[in-house]
């Protein structure tokens, strides 16, 4: 798996992990609006919560990352979460505009094990003729919890990749945020 693919998976996972922070959000605990630097990139965030009537309310908003860091060897994202909490009757019951720090991790990755292309093949075995057109064989391993063989094969394939540590990845992502803010 290329670094670009890993980075894409990381960003998607970060957005998914941050969307879970809206579950159970209480507008009474929302911090007052804080000012941040100009938005660099935003991701839509949706979630649900239990409203005062005991029914399901919704949260709709966005997350703007401002910084990535390594905490205890794990990658975390810090940014501003803004949005509106709407109860089950459709009434806005509060707004959120606060700084949030959440773990960012690669959820599921795939790695290419084999990509084999055979051209057309003609065999004549003592009068038995076998003609085979082009064959394209792709074997991909999926790395995720419970996928023992996929995890093993992806680990073997990635032995020489030089996977970055959480700190190195945080530095790269902070550099990308700085580039985006300059656009």
UniProtKB/TrEMBL annotation:
Keywords: Signal. Residues 1-30 form the signal peptide. This is Uncharacterized protein.
């Amino acid at each position: 798996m290329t670094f670009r693919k890993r980075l894409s998976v990381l960003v998607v996972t970060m957005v998914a992990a941050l969307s879970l922070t809206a579950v159970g959000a209480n507008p009474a605990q929302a911090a007052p609006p804080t000012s941040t630097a100009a938005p660099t990139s935003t991701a839509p965030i949706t979630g649900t919560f239990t409203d005062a009537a005991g029914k399901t309310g919704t949260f709709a908003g966005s997350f703007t990352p401002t910084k990535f860091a390594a905490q205890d060897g794990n990658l975390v994202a810090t940014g501003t979460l803004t949005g509106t909490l709407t109860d089950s009757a459709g009434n806005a019951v509060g707004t959120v505009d606060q700084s949030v720090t959440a773990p960012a991790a690669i959820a599921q990755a795939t790695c290419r094990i084999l990509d084999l292309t055979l051209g057309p093949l003609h065999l004549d075995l003592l009068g038995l003729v076998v003609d085979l057109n082009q064959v394209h064989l792709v074997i991909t391993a999926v790395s995720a919890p419970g996928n023992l063989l996929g995890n093993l094969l992806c680990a073997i394939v990635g032995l020489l990749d030089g996977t970055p540590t959480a700190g190195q990845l945080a530095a790269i992502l902070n550099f990308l945020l700085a580039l985006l803010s300059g656009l």
